[in-house]
Amino acid sequence: MKAGFVLGVSDGRVLVRRRKGEPCNQPVCGLDTLDVHLALGAISYDSRSTFVVIPRNLTANLYVSLVIQPVMLPFMNSIQRGVFQQDNALYHTAVVTQHALQSVDMLPWRARSPDLSPIEHVWKNIGRQLQRHPQPAITVPVFTDQVQQPWNSIPQTDIRNLYDTMHAHLHSCIQNSGGFTGY
């Protein structure tokens, strides 16, 4: 459902590309602020939702008004026999969120359970594409554009494959006592 991405610098270090002998661009070298945003979206065997970019300091009320009502409820209503899954982030477990999702069939998320959600693979692939992008996203509009393109271009057959291999993924997780599965 979600992935966190850092706009600008990810770990406090600033990596600068420059030619040998070229002086460092001081304003760039002085950049030390982090702007973390979340990209949220949902997938199903036959479709995907639109995605939403939101600030990391999300409250339950904002989650309901920015994500659940305009994006997730319409998406879930479009799917026959759809089951919604989200982790136990505070804004997911809040009463206001649970109330907003009362009409949706939910898959419970156990504490300390391995994350087997197929969408994690989607976010991982999008993250790789963002890392390879020649221009780092330093503003929310640029970030949104840079996520929109790979989100829309993932073939639905790739998403179906994630669901089709779920049985093997679960089996591997059980065999490894919830540890690393290689998926």
UniProtKB/TrEMBL annotation:
Q: Which residues form the Tc1-like transposase DDE domain?
A: 39-133
Please give one Gene Ontology molecular function term for this protein. nucleic acid binding
Source species, domain of life: Eukaryota
| A Pfam family hit | DDE_3
The protein's name in its UniProt record: Tc1-like transposase DDE domain-containing protein
Organism from which the protein derives:
Araneus ventricosus
